[in-house]
Amino acid sequence: MANRLLELAGGRKVGVTGFGDPRSLRLVVFCHPTPGAGGFDPDPIVTAQGGVHLLSFDRPGYGASEPLGAHEPASFEERADDIAAFINDSEQSARSIAHTRFGLIGVVGWQTGGLVAIALAARHPDLVDRVALIDTPAPPFAPPILSSLPFTLDYLGIDPTDPALNRPGLRNRLDRMLDEAAVQGSAGFDTDQSSLSDPKELKKARASTKLIYGEDHPLISSADALWFQSHLPNATTVRVQNGRSLSIATQWDRILEHVAPHPAEAEE
Fold it and tell me: For the whole model, what pTM was predicted?
């Protein structure tokens, strides 16, 4: 469940969940998959040791976030703008109260969340310096499917027999994320599917980008990674050997090392 409810400029309320160290000046935004909600930490132990403040936002219709209004656009670019507006407003408040500057941030996107992450980097290059896309689909996207509640692991391409699910607490965290995704029925899922469109501003994303793809993912192929590799000016691809659908958890330490590098690595 989101631990904070914020109100955007237009009045719509959005759920935000924080993990890691709230005092850390290295902010990382996590963009959840479809279906999903913001209260998911891929590996709480690694996050706690990573020295980062991790924030995740429920997209409209998921978790605590209100659905879109009748005239609000359903696009991942707009969701990226929502995140940027919140971060910029928060930094202005922190600067005025405690003279604190967040600096540049890292962004992680899992599956469709990667489309929000890369839109954030492309539309707000002065805000984002590092991006990680994990098993993110590339256009042309699969045809929309009808939702059937409750949401299950199948929606994320996760095989219930995947050994990665034996990682401590992972299955429970995934189940909670999917339960939160369904609290408003299929509203969030349907909005996400309406938001799918070719990313239009990829070449503006100058942030250092890591593309992480499981070699044995049932829904995503190496062609998706190649598409992003060919469109992003500063991207490298990591193929997870024998990886299925849970590279977001099995590779979480490597992901955080990229989006939240130590100062010397960041300068390099």
Answer: 0.94
